[in-house]
Amino acid sequence: MSASGVRLDDPGRSVLLTGNEAVARGALEAGIAYASSYPGSPSAEVLEVLAALAEERGFYAEWSVNEKVALEGAAAASLAGLRSICIMKADGLNVALDTLTALSASGTKGGLVVVVADDPGAHSSVKEEDSRYLGKVAHLVILEPADPQEARDMTVAAFGLAEQLRAPVMLRCVTRVCHASGNVVLGTLPPKPAGRPHIGCQERYITHVAYHRIQEERLAQAREIGEGWPFNAYQGPPEPEILVITAGPGYLYAREAVEVLGLEGRVGILKLGMSWPLPEKFLLRHLKSASKVLFVEEVEPFHEENVGYLVACHLEEVFPLALYGKKSGHVAGPKGPGLGEIDVDTVIRALAALAGIPYEAQPGDYGREARELVKKIPRRELGFCAGCPHRASFWALKTAIALDGREVVVLGDIGCYTLGAGRSGHYLMQTVHAMGSGVGMASGLGKLERLGFSQPVVALVGDSTFYHAAVPALINARYNQSRFLLVVLDNGTTAMTGHQPHPGSGVTALGKRVPALSMEEVAGAFGIPVTVHDPYDVKGAVEALYRLLRQDGVRVLVLRRAYALLTARQEKKPRVYVDPKRCLGDACGCHRFCSRVFGCPANTWDAALGRAKIDETVCTGCGVCATLCPQGAIVVEEVTRNGA
Amino acid sequence: MVHNLIITGVGGQGTVLASHVVAAAAVESGFLVAVGETFGASQRGGSVTSHVRISRYRRYGPLIPRHRATIIVGFEPLETLRALLNYGNPLTRVIMNLHPNYPLGVLSGADTYPETQALMEAVRRISAGVLAFNATEIAHHMGSPVAANMVMTGALAGSELLPMAVPAYEKVIGELFSGPARQLNLKAFRAGVLVARGDLPAVWGNQVVKDGGK
Amino acid sequence: MPGGPGDLLRQVLQTGQCVSCGLCLDLCPYLQAAAERVVMIHHCGLEEGNCFRVCPRTPTDWEEMDRRVFGAPRADHVLGHYRQILFARATDPVVAAAGQYGGVVSALIIFALDGGKIRGAVLTAGAPGEMPQPALAVSPDEVLACAGSKYSAAPSLRALHEAARRGVEPVAVVGRPCQVLAVRKLQAVQGIEAHHLAGRKVALVVGLFCFWALEPGFHAFLRAVAGKARILKVDFSPESMLVRTDRGPLCKPVEEVRGFIRPACRECFDPTAEFADVAVGSTEYDEAWNTLVIRSKRGEALVRAALEAGAIEVRPYPPERLPALRAAVRSKKLRALEVQASRGESSYLLIPAGYRQALTGRDQR
Predict the structure, then answer these.
(1) Do A179 and B125 touch (CB under 8 A)?
(2) Residue in A398, A587, A628 nearest the CB of C193
(3) Which of A193, A521, B206, C44 is deepest in the core (most CB within 10 A)?
């Protein structure tokens, strides 16, 4: 929520922190000098908090253009002997991976902690990626906290570990840690970072295959440390019938499941704070004493596979032993094993099945009386926020494509506008992959003319995504003479993750005003023509899109309008209302365009009057619906300064 | 003993802030707290639900198991019933805002929004009691409909279903906000407390339904 | 016959039957036009809609239209209802010079504007060689700026909705025969307050003779023909296209233009704007005059008042010219019936048997 709890210099005090805040607090206590990130949910708030405290704690923090550059910046600080932290979501790790695998080979100096936030269930992502596999590829130590307290504790420990091993350490958080809150007992804040950052003339950090051996030796060293590490812990009876091997919030779910089922005497819980490398001796000790093992972990069966291999190597010692988890189908959420997020109920069901005891959360007919009264409970679809410029942009694009008449291909990208693949964007988007992918694919399609491909191509990208990953694709398109229209949906902020600034915003993470890097100038420098238009002027935007669709080569249209909710907070918003005398209701040919088709949450329907209505508590006053109402029935009343 | 509180609503209604106030008040009062919420896409029209777990000795995870909620505070009628069906049981106590917020599917005509009265009655039938009123309307009279989240928080505090005293909440709200926002939020919170205590004058033409349930 | 956007799409828009009258545009947010091509952006999901009701290319019963506009079936099956056919021209030399021929349309509209009979006129703007655009003229100067034939199918009735929104009423509509039909169909829509009103706001309908309209590609062709010269005026004779430019006249055989004829025009049954208050065309004889067909009482009153005020002058239609006009119109109608026969049930033309027989029999006049 804020930096106030993170900032407190009150060791021993228990405060309420989110997992993200707890990571920031841990970094603070570890005495970081450098923090960098590209915003991604669910970890965006870590750098937000750090940036807010950077000035007073005397360290540097930045929103980097992308995760790779963020990691390289943090690595540089490490090589100069400073403690640094780099934060990204799982998808961001893919972007940074090339650098990360190299850093692990070259080694680092100051403690470098890479925080990677996975999003099981993809609450605010397009995929649920298990980053532990990539950490393993990079030969890294992977730590997994279970709750905010552990997020703080493990962050502090990770810096020490990174320095001991002279390599980056990965802290794998999941949404239920990042966005959870809980009591965190604060540690001591160190004095401001001292000592001059320096790289000695004899120091070398070279990536070379020869260092593969060192990477393996380092993992062996980490494995030894893990054997006695307090975050790898067992609790339960000495000879449990069922051994639960778990990490992250799964540990808390397992504990509660045992409590709910009353299985304290039969089930032991082995919690892995270090998910890689595995503390093999510690694991074997407990595997020998159990007859059934249940793996409880988020997303993929990472432990299940790696412990399974360990079991296979020591079959004689642990036999008889049966393994259960996602692979066996026992740990399965509503979507099936290995799909979606797990929760307490997932674990309760699995444990109840293994222990052979019945469990029903409630009698099957609970809720029957309610369902008799309310037959159907409508789902809530996600849509663009009220006043969001993307809604106007997508309507303009839909119109322009229809007017063009050809089979235009629309390539999407990652951001709020990914919702444009659904009803909010009239299902226009035909591809969604990764940051900047739409532009790269457009660049590819735009070269297929010689093979008989004749459809016009439009790539949609957000402003933050433009800087993050679209620029190389644009260079490629220009160099290889591709042809497509790039539409930048520019709302001036990284809206998806909570409005962080980017290179085009003219302000840094530290709040410093800097010259905004204009995308017109960037694209213009490549010799690509750029048109800028306001999407709120839908008619004009349609004309611009229609005209540009018919042009050749690579061209860019920036649909620019500041994010509506931000503007509404800043200024006095105009009052928008429906004149019930002009609105024709269902007699109009529009068939409720404003509430039904345009789909702004502020455009509702007054069933009693049979007329359109504006929910003024939701409306941001953008007035776009007023320009599209065929009867001109929506009135925009500018609010003057004296409130008249 | 763990208090399993669910605060549910729609993106933009301020459920996350309300759960933070409750959780912070609990920490202030010496309890262990775990809050689970998903707010990656919270402002984009979806359901937003916070799980708040308050205990004295034992740490819990951030998610309440199915049908183990002790209290459900619903900022929106439909979401209240949805949460109750998923997490409630016959002993669950409910506080609900009667101001509806229509899903996109309803606005588009693909779905119909159930009658608010039917929603309230459905909630009453499968819970241990419901306090239902239009918190948005009250917040509107207090200065801004946006403060409905604080009216609801006040109603929760005033209902004394949780072990924290009203001043603990007020302290948190006072620290979270400054200036006119602090005044507005405290005013809204106190109105909610009055609603729960049955002391709110009926000047708002507001229907307050308090039902002991079965 | 009721229908909705789906029917409009199937029967008109997807089959090249749209005449780009422009009346459905802005009736809802879903029908838009680019380069005289009307496109449905989004299917609103309604079973019935005004877009279908007002479209001149959805099924139209000719006899019913006669009764609705003139109160009776027609007696003349070639020229439709008319009270008088005259030669006419504007008396003001400025107006006459601006017009394609005698400037009668501009003169009548300016007269109606000046006399307060109308507050605006739905017209078509655009210089030769440019894409014509819908225009709402509210002053004589704006009317004159729209003078002259345009040759392609500008969706100018779109401006009727603009007039309704801007509160400009009553208005005159000047349009091609299909546009006249569209306005009459709009006026016939019952029970829907606002569109009904938009229809009622039309105080005068002036139809323009039209035997075909051209695809918008014609304008680019014209510019290519003119090269660097500035196009002053374009005119067609049955054999050729004459382009007057600042560097002298250019002539092209009409065959070179035929390829641009809109497919929808092949099934046109009404080249002389039979449902207008007055219809105006060339004389095919004397460039300084127009043919003026007075069809309705309202049209008659306007012409009489304009004559009395000296805004226009008239002379009798030369009787020896009439057979040529009748023959041209009749042959156009017969061609439309042939196309209709080939399209069968999907044709928009509902021509009662009596009308058909009277037309296919020998022209008695």
Answers:
(1) no
(2) A587
(3) C44
Provide the 8-state DSSP code for A240. Answer: -
CA angle A475, A478, A479 (to 5 degrees): 85
Phi, psi dihedral angles at C224 (to 5 degrees): -65, -40
Nearest to C188 by CA among C54, C8, C59: C54
- What the block records as the tokens of C57 is 């290319």
pLDDT at A171: 98
Mean pLDDT of C1-13: 91
Rg over CA atoms, chain A: 27
Local confidence band at A334 (pLDDT 50, 70, 90 cut-offs): confident
Kindly list the structural domains of chain A, giving each domain's residue range(s) and its CATH number in brackets, ordered by start.
4-198+205-226 (3.40.50.970), 231-355 (3.40.50.920), 389-567 (3.40.50.970), 571-637 (3.30.70.20)
Q: Please tell me the distance from the alpha carbon of residue C148 to that of residue C126, in angstroms, as a whole number.
A: 9
Our CA-based measurement puts residue B125 at a distance from the nearest CA of chain A, in whole angstroms, of 6
pTM over 0.95: no
| Range B157-180 average pLDDT | 96
Which residues on A lie below 8 Å from B49 (Cβ)?
Answer: none
C-alpha of A151 from chain center: 17
Q: What is the CATH number of the domain that holds B52?
A: 3.40.920.10
Shortest CA gap A629–chain B (Å): 16
Q: How confident is the model at residue C199 (pLDDT cuts 50, 70, 90)?
A: low
3-state secondary structure A370-386: HHHHCCCCCCCCCCCCC
Q: Is A605 on the interface with B (CB under 8 A)?
A: yes
Identify whether the C-beta of residue A49 lies closer than 8 Å to the C-beta of residue A500: no
List C-alpha distances in Å: A122 to A90, A331, A523, C360: 11, 18, 33, 72
Q: What is the 3-state secondary structure (H, E, C) of chain C?
A: CCCCHHHHHHHHHCCCCCCCCCCCECCECCEEEECCEEEECCCCCCCCCHHHHHCCCCCEEHHHHHHHHHCCCCCCCCCCCCCEEEEEEECCHHHHHHCCCCCHHHHHHHHHHHCCCCCEEEEEECCCCCCCEEEEECCHHHHHHCCCCCCECCCCCHHHHHHHHHCCCCEEEEECHHHHHHHHHHHHCCCCHHHHHHHHCEEEEEEECCCCCECCHHHHHHHHHHCCCCEEEEEECCCEEEEEECCEEEEEECHHHHCCECHHHHHCCCCCCCCCCEEEECCCCCCCCEEEEECCHHHHHHHHHHHHCCCEEEEECCHHHHHHHHHHHHHHHHHHHHHHHHHHHHCCEECCHHHHHHHHCCCCC
User: Average pLDDT in the A588-597 region?
Assistant: 90
**How many angstroms separate the Cα of A403 from the Cα of each of A480, A545, C152, C173?**
29, 10, 18, 26
Give the H or E element holding residue A60: strand A60-63
Please name each of the domains of chain C with its CATH number.
65-215+261-360 (3.40.640), 217-258 (3.10.450)
Task: Determine which helix (DSSP H) or strand (DSSP E) holds B55, and give its type and residue range.
Answer: strand B47-55
How many whole angstroms from its chain centre is CA A308? 30
| Residue type, position A239, single letter | E
Assign A544 to helix, strand or coil. Answer: helix
A595 Cβ under 8 Å from any chain B Cβ = yes
